[in-house]
Amino acid sequence: MVEYIDTRLDYIFSALGDPTRRAILVDLLEGESKLSDLEIPYPMSLTAVSKHVKVLAKAGLITHEKRGRERYCKLDPRAMERARTWLHHYHRYWERKLDQLDSYLTASKIEEALKKHRESKG
Amino acid sequence: MVEYIDTRLDYIFSALGDPTRRAILVDLLEGESKLSDLEIPYPMSLTAVSKHVKVLAKAGLITHEKRGRERYCKLDPRAMERARTWLHHYHRYWERKLDQLDSYLTASKIEEALKKHRESKG
DNA sequence: ATATTAATGAACTATTTGGTTGACTGTTTG
DNA sequence: CAAACAGTCAACCAAATAGTTCATTAATAT
């Protein structure tokens, strides 16, 4: 069964729904970075970046830690795995349905062929 | 490289960020359904369901078609594949980084061992 | 022909989101 | 110490979201 009630998924998928936040995540693949070094695709204030970072942290997609006057962010891959797992289960379920449909079609074709065979003999 | 600027992904991930909409998608795995037959986990008006369906359609996650007075929805798996692909690439990139880190660590261990070896001989 | 049903549209509300600016805190540097 | 820097806080704003209700349209059933 594919679960859909999972508050964490709400946060994760919603966080992924914004291009700035996806950009931050992709940036962090290269390793940790302080806030003001993050590569942001659209110009915006540091305050705005700080808010996006908060959203990502709330979703569990990153962790962050203040060192001196700088705040360093780094990926926490577990949240992303949760999203991947959901999509994976969904996909597997979908594939299974396709298989069932396929074997149903095969079965009905066999039925049909048998019927024709019987008719030709009758 | 992992892309992050893709307006469609914005719609797809945002659509997935809501439990009602995920429920609708999971429901539709069983096959097409008319609006008023969708299994909605939280009580809400049909108008609200209709809006969620619109969001899903805009994201490309479903298609819908009016037959008589009823509107039937069914999955369009391509949008979901897009999300899966993004997460997949992201994950692969992450794994590769881990591998690099791993071989870096291995390399530095070898370095260290060699150094010790030389020292013991020197 | 009338009543019922499925869905949509319009108007409204409350909350959230994504951004801004300006003032402030704490850290580093000259 | 003073200046510059990194980040946060608070207040504000516009637009989007998630829901409501009531009226309406169009199709179906009695």
Q: Would you mind describing this structure in some detail?
A:
Two copies of one chain form a homodimer. By secondary structure, chain A is mainly alpha-helical. The first copy, chain A, is built from four helices and three strands. The first copy, chain A, has helices at residues 7-16, 19-28, 46-58, 77-121, and strands at residues 33-34, 62-67, 70-75. In chain A, strands 1-3-2 form a three-stranded antiparallel β-sheet. In chain A, a hairpin with a 2-residue loop joins β2 (62-67) and β3. In chain A, α1 (7-16) packs antiparallel against α3 (46-58) and α1 packs across α4 (77-121). The radius of gyration of chain A is 25 Å and the shape is elongated. The mean pLDDT of chain A is 89. Chain A binds chain B through residues 2, 4-7, 9-19, 22-23, 25-26, 29-30, 41, 75, 77, 80-81, 83-84, 86-88, 90-91, 93-94, 97, and chain B through 2, 4-7, 9-19, 22-23, 25-26, 29-30, 41, 75, 77, 80, 83-84, 86-88, 90-91, 93-94, 97. The first copy, chain A, binds a DNA duplex (30 and 30 nucleotides) through residues 18, 20, 34-36, 44-48, 50-52, 55, 66, 68-71.
